[in-house]
Amino acid sequence: MPSFKLSYFPIKGLSEVSRMLFVLGGEAFEDDRVPFEQWPTVKDCQTCLLFIGMSIRKILFDKVINSFRFPSSTDLGTPFGQLPVLYIDGQPLPQSFTIALHINTHKTSLIAKVIHKQIRFAGRTPFESAWVDALADEWKDYYVAMRPVAAGYMEKGHVEEQLRKDENGCTGHFVGPTLTWVDLLVAEHVTAFEGIIPGFFDGFPALKAIQKAVQEEPRLQKYLANRPETYF
């Protein structure tokens, strides 16, 4: 069995879904929470401009074009100077929302997908699995529209319209009658966003139902009760 080490900051952020998937699957992993003050000494490449507003997309592109090499098990740190990174038997897998991997016959784009294909929270059939991936891609579109709202730069009406599309008549789960990793993605986002704008999702009962189903999942109770309290 491979060994897993998930490195991220001491917040929920981009890694919480992956942590929850490990717990749901009963898969042992090292939950490496890197203190912010230690981050400059941890990263493996010079991307300090990330913290003063330079486009992440541009830095990723420049890094890939100019100096990319496939990481080996002897590599240390973070290949693109960012977290999270999932180490699988010591080999680093970076970029939570930009990883492109081929697993079986289709491409994936999240660290969480690498895990859920093994732990099987991706639907009961190939078609359900395809819909899980499709909804995750749709959720990314919503997430892009939501970010200015969290910062207070636009009215929430546009995001509400997108949310109603994303609800899609679900009743506790997005795809089929069982838990999938996209349910975790949605539930964690609802919880985090309501910490910024309390009551924002009160008009979206389907999304609240997904949040409730995840929070009441028996296999997650111990983890949810004991995970560190963070704002997001």
From TrEMBL:
Q: What is its EC number?
A: 2.5.1.18
Per the record, the GO terms for biological process are: glutathione metabolic process
What SUPFAM superfamilies does the record point to? GST C-terminal domain-like (SSF47616), Thioredoxin-like (SSF52833)
What InterPro entries does the record point to?
A: Glutathione-S-Trfase_C-like, Glutathione-S-Trfase_C_sf, Glutathione_S-Trfase_N, GST_C, GST_superfamily, Thioredoxin-like_sf
Keywords, A to Z, come to: Transferase
Q: Do the record's keywords include ATP-binding?
A: no
Source organism per UniProt: Pristionchus pacificus
Q: Which Pfam families match?
A: GST_C_3
One of the entry's Gene Ontology molecular-function terms is: glutathione transferase activity
What name is this protein filed under? glutathione transferase
Q: Which reaction does it catalyse?
A: RX + glutathione = an S-substituted glutathione + a halide anion + H(+)
Q: Which family does it belong to?
A: Belongs to the GST superfamily. Sigma family.
